[in-house]
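Postdoc handover notes: sequence design on the structure in folder B. Input tokens:
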């Protein structure tokens, strides 16, 4: 592969947005939950677009790329965001498992954002200090992980942030009980499913 690809417009732009995302979450304590979600509503779609535009490359090295984000780093961001978002942190997610019998699954906004952060931060750390071979493989791994994992997480998170901004009163509110025990019967999707069941029972 031509090493110039590592410094192409597409890669540089993706790296810049990824860096902005990671820095933003690392400094999340400076903002309230609504401000965080307002900025994320603009930043997350841009991150998705820039990831889509990354060039197709092949990995060069046999060994795995080194990881830098520790479990405690991930946990610190997750806990801070969860506190900032309050009741807005929990959302109804899309069940992507065709074999699942569960009608609804519930997502965790802070967890999703921390997962994306972990992949991007690991990429950035290697990209900044590595040789061309390591930079290449860090980029390849990041794009492959986007295709298989965090791209879907990112798409789901964009939808969840949009929904949270429609219902801003939940942002920062005390979630009360454990998310799995909270009453979700009044959530819009839950109400629509209940209406659908009643309509079909009458047929």
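Designed sequence:
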């Amino acid at each position: 592969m031509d090493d110039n690809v590592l410094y192409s417009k597409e890669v540089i732009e993706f790296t810049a947005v990824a860096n902005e995302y990671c820095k933003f979450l690392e400094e999340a304590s400076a903002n309230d939950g609504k401000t965080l979600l307002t900025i994320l509503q603009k930043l997350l779609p841009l991150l998705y677009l820039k990831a889509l535009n990354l060039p197709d490359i092949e990995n060069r090295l046999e060994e795995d790329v080194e990881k830098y984000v520790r479990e405690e780093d991930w946990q610190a961001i997750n806990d801070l965001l969860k506190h900032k978002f309050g009741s807005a942190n929990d959302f109804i997610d899309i069940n992507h498992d065709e074999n699942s019998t569960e009608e609804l699954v519930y997502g965790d906004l802070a967890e999703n954002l921390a997962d994306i952060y972990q992949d991007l931060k690991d990429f950035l750390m290697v990209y900044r200090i590595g040789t061309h071979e390591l930079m290449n493989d860090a980029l390849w791994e990041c794009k492959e992980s986007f295709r298989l994992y965090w791209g879907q997480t990112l798409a789901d998170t964009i939808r969840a942030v949009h929904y949270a901004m429609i219902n801003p009163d939940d942002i920062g509110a005390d979630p009360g009980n454990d998310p799995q025990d909270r009453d979700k019967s009044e959530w819009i999707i839950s109400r629509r499913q209940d209406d659908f069941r009643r309509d079909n029972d009458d047929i």
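Context for whoever picks this up: Residues 88 and 170 are 5 Å apart (CA to CA). Don't rerun without checking with the PI first.
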